[in-house]
Design brief:
The structure is a homodimer of 334-residue chains. Chain A is an alpha/beta fold. The first copy, chain A, has 9 helices and 13 strands. Chain A is 35% helix and 20% strand.
Amino acid sequence: MEKPYAIGIDIGAQSAKIGVVNRKGDVLERAKVSTKDTTEFDVFLENLVEKGIKPLLTKNNIDISQIQGVGVGAPNASYKKGTIEQAANLVWGKDPKYNGIIPFVEKLKEKVGVRCVLTNDANATALGEMQYGAARGMKDFIEITLGSGVGSGIVINGQLLYGHDSFAGELGHTTVVRAENARVCGCGKKGCLEAYTSAVGLARTAREILENTDVKSSLRKYEIDEITSKEVSEEAKKGDEFAKEVYNRTCKMLGETFADFVAFSAPEAIILFGGMTGAGEELLLPPIKEALQENLFKIWRGRKENCDEDKIKVIFSSLPDNDAAILGASALAW
Amino acid sequence: MEKPYAIGIDIGAQSAKIGVVNRKGDVLERAKVSTKDTTEFDVFLENLVEKGIKPLLTKNNIDISQIQGVGVGAPNASYKKGTIEQAANLVWGKDPKYNGIIPFVEKLKEKVGVRCVLTNDANATALGEMQYGAARGMKDFIEITLGSGVGSGIVINGQLLYGHDSFAGELGHTTVVRAENARVCGCGKKGCLEAYTSAVGLARTAREILENTDVKSSLRKYEIDEITSKEVSEEAKKGDEFAKEVYNRTCKMLGETFADFVAFSAPEAIILFGGMTGAGEELLLPPIKEALQENLFKIWRGRKENCDEDKIKVIFSSLPDNDAAILGASALAW
């Protein structure tokens, strides 16, 4: 029988955010448990259940029998194995008891007694988008998370793409610059999309040009090291030409690369999510769409027949920023 | 009830090749019908059935009731709609009666009375590989056809990837060179993989360098315009250093680009098919694998645990060259 609620858990380096969600996508109540105050996974799990999940249910008079399942989004998560593997950002990720391979699903299920499903955070966001957001009704789309990194969740024929090892969808680590002096990405490779088009990459572009040229910009009022994507977007919105140019360059790379993604899976839309979208549609979408159209293979260029819509849409997520990760994780449970 | 035979039809610019295939993948008998001697689709279809399919069945004492279905691989084919659209290379592709949209499946089914399925030729090859070839038992792989163009068929979780409009898998038209002087591809875009790594692209690389440098090579015995990929591969096999270097450059581009494909769909293998593989594994595979390993995201690099096999394999097709297209098309029918 279908049950009315699901639990969504978003595990990050600082905390695990927990929410009880109904089928419409309303987050009824939230809780937070630290992920960084113990190096033992067993202790963290005990906290998650006893200080997070159980009080949340009690407070809302919900019995565990009314819960369809628990969905968990986490870094370095393997959907197929239900494990979190070699997660450098989680202090209990390297718990020697488990030798770096945390059997998350198995252990959580022992404690809560309902179905538990785990996937990586970018995949969870894509699922949330399909269940509650801008991808409702879509069966083929790509969700790109532009934050401190560039994450991706790929949906094909209504299903998340996992690939043979469950690690598919690392589009932030496709190569966009092949040159000796290409940026080294956090992953160790050179020239990755993430190194240029994440919030960190965008700010780096701004700082590099400010340092190496004498371009005029209102960003000069900051110390170079203070400049993050927030300062660049603020000045761009106020009309600073240089700050706008930094967005244009970054978006051009995104649009060019999206054209290659389209050649792969022919999605109906590419959906943008994450902190960088805070800069707004006006700043981001026109240059992305322009570069996409210029680089698309001919059959995908332009508008649909008798319709004012692009054949391949680029749109913003409609998930609420605060709850997106919880919603995405909860969508795993339905 | 399962029936013992399928018909595979491979439609090309010159001819349609027809074969009766059993479930093991033996082509029992072949026939050929010209595709270029009429500009009327109705006439071509009549020929295909009366001069191709029917005599083939009669000759083998097979009744149409023993045929599971007819699979057709064709250029510009839409799987979802069963149509061949705007096919520039087929003389009846622009038959004014059908306004460039040939309702192939509907019309063929009217004539033969069994299930008919149509897909593009690169997809058909991937299906054939999965049914009878090197991808037996695989659920996630990418088939790359290196011929006069670069085609691709992508299999995800045991299914062909079609995308929202059924045109997914145009990997030959992903961009590998972003520069003012990048080659213009036959599709009109600049810098496509196909422009550099097809048989035509490889020969062009050889000719360009021979014309613009004074590199020593046994290829100098030919007039520049005579040099095709065949001459380059022959000289490379005989040990000509320059010809080998042309293969190395081309294969490096393939390996680099394959790394981005892996970041998308995490396939178990990339399988190479088509005329260019005639150059042999020794010439092609080492430089492709080297570039692939150098460019893979870390989780896919190197060997499987306790195993002498790469995490992501690059292998040659095991489909017989002559019958591959018929086999691929017939695989659609099962």
